[in-house]
Amino acid sequence: MTNPGTILMGDGDAIKASCNEMDRLPVDWDLSDKQVEPVRKYQTTLKESATISGPGTFMGKAMRTISFEPTKQEGWWLDRTDLPHTLPIRVGIANVWTTGQIVSNIVLRSGNPHNYVRMVEHIVSLRMGMGIDNMMIKIDSGDPPLFEQGSLDLVEALDQCGKVTTDKPVPYVTVKEPVTVGGTYGDFVTLAPPDDLDNPQLTVDCAINFKTAIGQQRIKFPVCEELTRMASIARTNTSLAKVVYCATIGRIFADVRHLGYNTKNVSIAGKRRYMNEPRLIHEGKALEAAWHRAVLDLLAAIALINNGLFIGKITSYKAGHRLDCELVRQLYLNQVLVPLEELKK
């Protein structure tokens, strides 16, 4: 049974009702028992650099380039090479500017108001699953490239770089008891401490519920490099209604008019069927939307915890970027994050 614990934001009765609703959903793909490597003791950075290019996300006719580079600084950083007099943006909750209006996405900004990068979630989410603690990400605009293979191109670029281990220990953080934030649509996200303090892991129980062909989906898994790699091919999902909107009324907005989305790089769901071929099918059911939500969206918000890697249990139901980021903000506002070692005492 889902235990919401302390409510940091939202209506307690509504959250409990949603917990009960999620508990009634069957688990479509349960990988809870998968054996994964013990948590790392020392921080890593890249061994070499790698560069990758693709059409822009918000400016689809323009080519955008990202370079992954080693760094001696702790954390992940975004460096706008087209703004040479600005400092790199640290990946962290303090630098979240917005989660988008028309197009839902996480936007990071620091210092100069022009020093921002949009749609960062599909990049920074990899901090949680690829075993890379410190990295400089150089990008030639605030509009990252969009790929037909989801984030797999980024994963393969990181593979080219390789990793080196430093002498700095990895700081791990968690919560002492379950904490929850709830939204206004029956959505919630809960963080809880790990079950096994002798072999602590980061685990996810994620469920979605759409009024389209996506329907109800629920997956459970431990966060690890193998599953991150598998899930990275999952694309952003959208509804056929939103596609029609973007092609008509939405064209009055520049962000929509120039979007790089197409039938290959997004999953489109109508009321009763998908408009293009879905991915990540398990036992006859397409779970692309659930894997995208869990690995490339939800974990992107957890990656915004920048004073340590979070270890524990994440439960998410019907949530999105806005609630994800509010969760992380509330963790700091309520000062509930603690070093993992504190629970072992």
Automatic annotation (TrEMBL):
Which cofactors are required for activity? Zn(2+)
Name the reaction it catalyses: a UDP-3-O-[(3R)-3-hydroxyacyl]-N-acetyl-alpha-D-glucosamine + H2O = a UDP-3-O-[(3R)-3-hydroxyacyl]-alpha-D-glucosamine + acetate
Q: What class of enzyme is it?
A: hydrolase
**Domain of life where this protein originates:** Bacteria
Give the enzyme's EC designation: 3.5.1.108
Matches recorded under Gene3D superfamilies:
lpxc deacetylase, domain 1, lpxc deacetylase, domain 2
Give a GO molecular function annotation for the protein: UDP-3-O-acyl-N-acetylglucosamine deacetylase activity
Keywords assigned by UniProt, alphabetized: Hydrolase, Lipid A biosynthesis, Lipid biosynthesis, Lipid metabolism, Metal-binding, Zinc
Q: Which GO terms describe its cellular component?
A: membrane
Pathway(s) this gene product operates in, as recorded in its UniProt entry: Glycolipid biosynthesis; lipid IV(A) biosynthesis; lipid IV(A) from (3R)-3-hydroxytetradecanoyl-[acyl-carrier-protein] and UDP-N-acetyl-alpha-D-glucosamine: step 2/6
Which Pfam families has this protein been placed in? LpxC (PF03331)
Entry's InterPro entries?
Ribosomal_Su5_D2-typ_SF (IPR020568), UDP-acyl_GlcNac_deAcase (IPR004463), UDP-acyl_GlcNac_deAcase_C (IPR011334), UDP-acyl_N-AcGlcN_deAcase_N (IPR015870)
Q: Name one GO biological process term.
A: lipid A biosynthetic process
Transmembrane residue ranges: none
Q: What does this protein do?
A: Catalyzes the hydrolysis of UDP-3-O-myristoyl-N-acetylglucosamine to form UDP-3-O-myristoylglucosamine and acetate, the committed step in lipid A biosynthesis.
What is the designated name of this protein?
UDP-3-O-acyl-N-acetylglucosamine deacetylase
Source organism: Pontiella desulfatans
